[in-house]
Amino acid sequence: MATHLKVSVWRGGKDGAFQSFEVPREASQTVLDVVTHIQRALDPTLAYRFACRVGMCGSCAMMVNGVPRWTCRTHVDKVVQKNELTIGPLRNLPIIRDLVTDMREFFDKWARAKGEFRGHATRQDDFAKVRPDSAPRVQADAGIECIGCAVCYAACDVVAWNPEYLGPAALNRAWTLVKDERDRDRIERLRAVAGDAGCHACHSHVSCTERCPKALSPTAAIAGLKREVAKAVLHGDL
Amino acid sequence: MRQHPSYWAFVVHRVSGIALALFLPFHFWALGNALQLEGFLQWTQQPLVKLGEWLIVVALAAHLGGGLRVLALEFLPWRDWQKSLAAAAAAFALGVGLAFALAL
Amino acid sequence: MTFRGEARLWIAQRASAALLALCVAVHLVTIVYAVRSGLTAAEILQRTRGSIAWFAFYSLFVLAVTVHAPIGLRSVLGEWLGWRGRSRDFALLLFAALLGWTGMRAVLGVFA
Description:
The structure holds three protein chains of three kinds. Chain A is of the alpha+beta class. Chain A has helices at about 30-40, 75-80, 105-110, 135-140, 150-155, 155-160, 170-180, 185-195, 205-210, 220-235, and strands at about 5-10, 15-25, 60-65, 65-70, 85-90, 95, 100. Chain A folds into two domains: about 5-100, Roll (Ubiquitin-like (UB roll)), CATH 3.10.20.30; about 105-235, Fumarate Reductase Iron-sulfur Protein, Chain B, domain 2. Chain A contains ten helices and seven strands. In chain A, helix 8 (about 185-195) packs across helix 10. Chain B has one domain (about 5-105): Fumarate reductase/succinate dehydrogenase, transmembrane subunit (3 helical TM bundles of succinate and fumarate reductases). By secondary structure, chain C is an all-alpha fold. Chain C has a single domain, classed as Up-down Bundle (3 helical TM bundles of succinate and fumarate reductases), CATH 1.20.1300. Chain C is built from four helices and no strands. The interface of A and C includes residues 198, 201, 226 and 233 of A.
């Protein structure tokens, strides 16, 4: 094992460039460790995001050798190629600076897909009794662990090709709410996710599911939305 | 990021679809001249034309395989084996292509 | 296009796909058989002309193609060429008409 890694890191905004650094290689080292070392020991002007550094918050998502990953959960050994690493900001999002992207569009699309629970019960009503093994609940549960890290959004080529596309995370969230029997806005949600900006733009590349660090399947969720929208259109509900 | 079977299946599906869409008007036009079918069939004996025909048959089989994959993903309950569908689709396309090649 | 329209296009695309899966399977088997048997044009036309069953089958085939191919191209034009809006849909309608006309001309030529 060589003593140093050759690391190319994106600097600047959209019109920036990769800058090269030599980082000491450790026996057990994550990509976040590498970025941290650069900022602390080599160049304090490097901008990057992280928070928990233990694989729970999703803040440290970046492009590592062209693939979106959580850098705190990516061991250098698993991704290094010929002792070299390339680290860049998440794809498909505007770059603020260096490794930091502007996440507003990601969350705006979440809102446009109506990713917000709306119940019809009040504090006067009894608790909703939802069977955890009911088919809709099982389907919803398969997608609720999303923490909005945008790795799927960065992995998706349709997001790159279609600026209006809501993206896998927003659509996955919409699906979990469509399948939530306590939710009252089903038809409004289906209206929000149908169309060229919504579920119908998905071509099942399955890149989102491949890359999701929580092993969720936006592909399955989006397929479910397609079926629900078709049913609603055929019943004249939409 | 694009190094997985489902993505390749998508690319094959799309490229074969484009090829078929471009080819079909010519195919229909040629068949519409059925009265001159003998002369047309003579023309199809040329090696370059045979190669083209073989590519079209493979494209058709590949597009069908990819289409079945999409239909399975969208309508059947989600299962991991659906990834292998991409492989099955490819195998099917190759099989048909071979059958046609042997016949040429 | 409205989201309702897009949803209907999706339904039409999947329905025509299911129908085409059957038609293409039959077509491939038929073509490979004809080529392997070394049929001449006269022999092919002898088997196909006047056949109501084959005429109906291939008419359905052509109809399914005129629905399926333009909708398929629509995504490609939008995503890879950035072509969206009414002009794209109008062009695709023309393409559908072209497929339908040349297709039925072929069906009539071979099966009528």
